[in-house]
Write a structure and sequence with these properties.
3 domains, 4-stranded parallel beta sheet, binds 1,3-dihydroxyacetonephosphate, Rossmann fold, binds iron/sulfur cluster, 308 residues, single chain, alpha/beta
Amino acid sequence: MKHTISQELFEILAAEIEVLKNDRKAVILAHYYQRPEIQDIADFVGDSLQLSQQAADTDAEVIVFCGVHFMAESAAILSPDKVVILPEEKAGCPMADMVDADGLRAYKKRVPGVQVVCYVNSSAEVKAESDICCTSSNAVKVVESLEGDNILFIPDENLGRYAAKRLGRSLQFWPGYCKTHDRLTMEDIQTAKKEHPLAKVIVHPECREDICQEADYVGSTAGLIKYAQDSEAQEFIVGTESGILHRLHQVCPEKKFYLASERLVCPNMKMTTLEKVRDALKTLSPRVTVKEEIRVKAKATLERMLAL
Ligand code: 13P
Ligand code: SF4
């Protein structure tokens, strides 16, 4: 996938960022949904789980997180001694905003003893009120690790239903969803399959339930990339955010990838630009911090997941 800026501008900004990054002893982490030029200057590009592991393990003094707010916040929870920067402070996740700590506390009061699995796409306050965290790559494993049948999955109902179905377990769900993945319809998939009859359909579990059922493979962003690499198929219909195409083309240059819908663009993921990364390194802001009382509880929820 091409950069969204000219090659000349890319080279100027990339060089400026490199100098600032070394001065600041910073590491740049980027999610697979970021603009191609951001992925190309990052030290590490990954899915949510890999990025939180990197954030927990890095020796750098500054973490520049090219992603959305909950991702940078997870880095701040896991590495309180580091300066964590989110180059665009308005880059949030609408799904994460669909559950808040007050709403969750009220639910727990209504359903005593409920165990709460929270998707990493959630605020620090919500994580602090939950028992264990999960990402799209380990949701099945996390639910499997819990005993009993009084389990609430928040906030992504599609991912929760996908995990429940895989395990044949019954869960309680929160009515949250990703506004980007929700734009993908069965009609889009059927049209794409007609146009590309030999292609495998690979989708993210944030897609609607009927789409996950129809797909040849369902997985996290890193899971989708691995599947495409390992598969003998040469063509793929891709049901997740457009940014992943950059990595797919890099790792499988000989294979063909078709985005299942042009609407699969997360506006929040696209807010980060190279200019904002450069300015963030210059000013060490906007900084993401978490109140210590919340951080300690949220860290325990994340660490239960990381220990699995
Ligand atoms: P991954 O865990 O697959 O990286 O997904 C994160 C996300 O926000 C998907 O919309
Ligand atoms: Fe949130 Fe969906 Fe964007 Fe992921 S793609 S950050 S879940 S809005």
